[in-house]
Amino acid sequence: MSKFRLSKSEVSNFNTPQEMYDDYKNRKIEGIHDYQSKMIDLYMENAHLETDIALELPTGTGKTLIGLLIGEFRRRKYNEKVIYLCPNNQLVNQTLEYSRNNYGIKAVGFTGSARDYDPKDKTTYLTGKGIAITNYSSLFNTNSFFQDPDIIIFDDAHSGENYISSNWTVAIDRFKDEDLYYLFAEAIKDIVEDMIYERMTNDNPNVTDRTWFDKIPNIRLLDKCSDIQKIIDEYIMGIYTDIKYPWSNIRDNLFSCNFYLSWREIVIRPYIPPTLTFSPFKNAKQRIYMSATLGKSGELERAFGIHQITRLPMVKDWQNKTIGRKYFMFPSASFDVKQTGNIIKKITEITDRVLMIVKNNDTQNGIIEFLEKNTEVDIFTGKDIEHSKEEFISSKHGFAIVANRFDGIDFPNDECRMLILFDLPNATHLQENFLITRMAAMTLFEERIKTRVVQALGRCTRSNTDYAAVCVFGDDLMNSLISPAKLKRFNPELQSELLFGLNNSENQDDLYDYLELLDIFLNNREEWEAAEQDIISKRDEIIAESSELDNSDYHALMDSSKHEVYAQYDIWKEDYKSALANIEAIISKLNGESLKGYRGFWFYIGAYCAYNIFKNGDRSYESVYKNYLLQASKTTISIKWFNKVIDIEDKEESVNNYMEYILEDIEKVILRASKASINKFYDELDHVLDLLESNDGNKFEIGHEKLGNLLGYRTFNPKGDAEPDPIWILNDKFCVVSEDKIYKNSDKSIPPKHVRQAAGHVNWVKSNYKQLSMGSELDSITVFITNSKNIEESASIHGEDIYYLNRDDFLEYANRCIKVLKEIRRSFNNVGDVIWREQVIDKFVSNKITPMDYINLIKRWKLSNFKNGL
Fold first, then answer.
1. For residue 78, how many C-alpha atoms fall within 13 Å in the half-sphere facing its CB?
2. Closest to 82 measured CA to CA, from 105, 112, 61
3. In angstroms, rounded to a whole number, what is the distance separating the alpha carbons of residues 382 and 711?
4. pLDDT tens digits, 221-251
């Protein structure tokens, strides 16, 4: 008998994954569902030989098994090396457990550093004797162990964008890479506005500074690339930093990247990740993308840098129904935000375990601090449940909190029945923020945001009989769920669940009564049955009444996506003429009105490409790049530097009304208002008018400040007696400073001391410009708002630089403002909706309430013009 090990080949005399799986007896599941088998059939019949294939199955329907079966079939049938990618380590461990213990499929897991991989597991994968299960980052790095996979299966592919793009994204963190952040700020000081540099170097930021972001015009950066290369090269030499590896991928291609700035970080990245420059990805025989929502707008193609992906259709009617039952709670529809902590605390007393998803680590840390001080719960973070969730699901007072994780954490049945979604944002990084907010390109991200939300909602409902409560906090998230335009994009049963939850969250006066509904849902299923039937009935009603949605904008985005991918690769290799040909195709396809902002982004990229051709010697492209910039400037008023990049004048441009400075903040005001009933917002607006009509000076001052906030100005109201009253800040360079004097008797003459007090406000503003988050070279006007119509003769000589505004005229202006705010609240659907923004501008102009109109109203009279009366 030989002491040598003899080779033993795996049997491969089967023709389908189903036939192969019949012989797998070491499994806990009985078999695969009919719809899973149909999906595999579709793959074998239509996509077996394709390079890029996408499969769609809703959350909780078992797409993991489908992916593993296809991978196992190819591994055994064709002796191919298969890697199955998950977004994070927690999912790797979870999938590995399912594969081995539930499905009986041989797999090996890889997490952590490649040097720590188990030698036996490495050999198993390299020899094609088992599927490798690992995370996206293990493949997408500069020194990946997985150099030549044959088959790559992407689980939760809709989550892949951040993981993949990070391989070509340098994020310079203010705190982690402090020296580099400040060196970079110094390097760009001469190509950005003074206020941008001041914001970046401000060590005592206010809220405005912390939330500010912008983009450096690519044209201005061209002559800075070598300086930036030198700064970053020197910084990373000899030290460990997260930016080292992505820097090596973009260092020589900075000209093809976008540079985004914020107080917290600087981000350098190409718009679309050039994945086909990465050989392990490019050379794979087949790439399979599995997702709960593939979408219709080409987001998968943009995320993976692939111009065309074959999509397989759903094999079962999931369009109308949800998986399991969700009871939605919207506490902020009835209760003040100050009640948030109390609501969370009460929820922990009603339920055994809670899963909370928050937007970032700072929020996570704040919630943990609150829980430690106010509750007795056992706290678990994402790291605590990365390898195993056993401690959490065995806890009787467990509270798991994870940051920015929309998918992959599965807690079926009694493992967890309470999900809290806390302040999840529409955008997850600076590039998304720029496109949504500055370019008003929200349509581009609607499906991406919808997918994130649906994924987050499905963390605790994993089968048809499962159920969980979902408590929602945050303006952006509420808008993503209950805004009429967003609501109709969900399937009928989810719409019904959301409407039921909203109906039972509005007009609640007693918090204990409201939370009793949660207790009934979780612990009294008999009493819940009536609600169950109501949700089903409403679902059927929605199905009966539903009409086909207009997806023309999504189709246009899908058609455009392949040219966008081609254009990115053209720019990467400096083939600017080819890039312009693709950009022309993009612009021609993005012809919907709601795509105007995104079309503007590509006009801007076109300008950059044409400028490069011009700079390289072809003078005929001077007019081309200038025209592109001019067209870009016409698509948005939120970008103030399109025409400043070079000297461009639009002869058709109307007189500036300064709406670009307040438009985004007006949108934020209306977004906050949209989480409650429209009547509640109307009551708030009417209350402002009541305050302004009051003869109580303090109440008038409060109403004055509130009105400024509602109109999108940044407001500041110092508290000292000799300091200004509400300051309306238009932008970094200009503000309106007020002195409010509402006298008990309107016949009272304005005395000299009040005029002298107002005259000193301009100096106060200039001395406190940092506190106001304004530039040192600011300009201001001072207005004296009063109900008096008389002034003492000795007072007028002090009013040379002070404007007079009678309270009645201010009230008439305020009434027009309130009327318009009510109108735009009714028409609001979406953040970053370019059509709504244009309607807002039209209404402000036609009702004469723009910033320029207010300035003109103020400047009608100066106090110094009046000697004996007003």
1. 17
2. 105
3. 40
4. 999 999 999 999 999 997 888 899 999 999 9
